[in-house]
Design goal:
Residues 106-118 have a biased composition (Basic and acidic residues). By secondary structure, the protein is mainly alpha-helical. 56% of the residues lie in helices and 6% in strands.
């Protein structure tokens, strides 16, 4: 295992995949002393990203059902990590948020590789002969672009095919052993049981819950409810996704905020540049409240049950 003196730089090669076995991800999952399970989990996450997500689209523009599919796969495959009731619910949610942040990062790596490959293909096309009898040139597409185009062409049929796939019958325990599941023992999504003081009913953690996002925005001072649709469009479908944003570093959070502001209707509809700048500066001032919430998770701590 090639490691530097800094453990955050420690990695192994799993086939063609470079897997880091130390760092925040490992600490959050409670796998500091289990590098084999870290390798297995990160490899699975990368495979899920490559199977279910569209490399042509940013993470925030992915089909929500595909994101949920990955979350379900992780819960089914690693129940000791994401479903164990002995682990406090806030910690389970932080683990899933960390896993989804890894999903986002791997997708971005694929997008960067895809963009570089596409640019190289475009340059190569300049020296490629045209196909006989046509005005088009031969084009060699990278495998991931082909998969992405196939998914786009299949449309709803792709979803139908995926639904018909047999569910995985194996789960990985925290000690790395595989177990066969009977239909009766197949794990399901976690149910969130709200406390009496919480305004939220019992629901599925991974559900589309715009009311949760609305409540968060309205809790800001001044209220930010007017940005609800923008937040939803960027993938913040529930508290879990807001927590995923909170797990990012400050630079990434600020980048997210800029993207939100670019899509803010008030900024888009301003008729002149000075008005746009003035309105966006006002939004940035308000957004500092949200960054503070995200960094400290004070809002989520008030509604989580023990």
């Amino acid at each position: 295992m090639p490691c530097s003196s800094n453990k955050t730089k420690c990695f192994v090669w799993a086939g063609h995949r470079k897997i880091h076995v130390h760092g925040i991800f490992v600490d959050e999952m409670g796998l500091t002393d289990e590098p084999e399970l870290v390798i297995m989990m990160k490899t699975k996450i990368q495979e899920y990203v490559e199977t279910y997500l569209n490399v042509d689209e940013h993470f925030s523009h992915q089909d929500p059902s595909d994101i949920v599919e990955i979350e379900e796969k992780l819960i089914q495959t690693f129940p000791d990590i994401f479903k164990d009731r002995d682990i406090p619910k806030p910690q389970r949610r932080r683990r899933m948020a960390r896993a989804m942040e890894y999903v986002r990062r791997h997708l971005q790596r694929l997008r960067d590789e895809h963009k570089s490959s596409y640019e190289n293909d475009s340059n190569d096309d300049d020296n490629t002969d045209s196909a006989p009898g046509s005005g088009n040139k031969y084009e060699v597409r990278p495998p991931q672009q082909i998969a992405s185009l196939a998914r786009s062409s299949l449309g709803e049929s792709a979803n139908t095919i995926r639904i018909l796939e047999a569910p995985s019958q194996h789960v990985v325990t925290k000690h790395g052993s595989a177990q066969t599941l009977t239909p009766q023992s197949m794990p399901s999504l976690l149910n969130v049981v709200a406390s009496p003081s919480s305004p939220y009913p019992s629901q599925i953690d991974n559900d589309y819950q715009p009311d949760e996002v609305r409540a968060f925005l309205q809790s800001c001072e001044p209220p930010m409810g007017h940005l609800l649709q923008t937040f939803l469009a960027f993938g913040c479908r529930n508290r879990l996704f807001l927590e995923a944003v909170a797990e990012s570093d400050q630079e990434e959070i600020e980048g997210f905020i800029r993207k939100v502001l670019e899509q803010s209707a008030s900024c888009r509809e301003s008729s002149s540049v000075p008005e746009i700048e003035l309105e966006c500066r006002l939004e940035v001032t308000r957004m500092k409240r949200i960054i503070n919430y995200l960094n400290h998770l004070t809002y989520f701590n008030t509604i989580d049950t023990p």
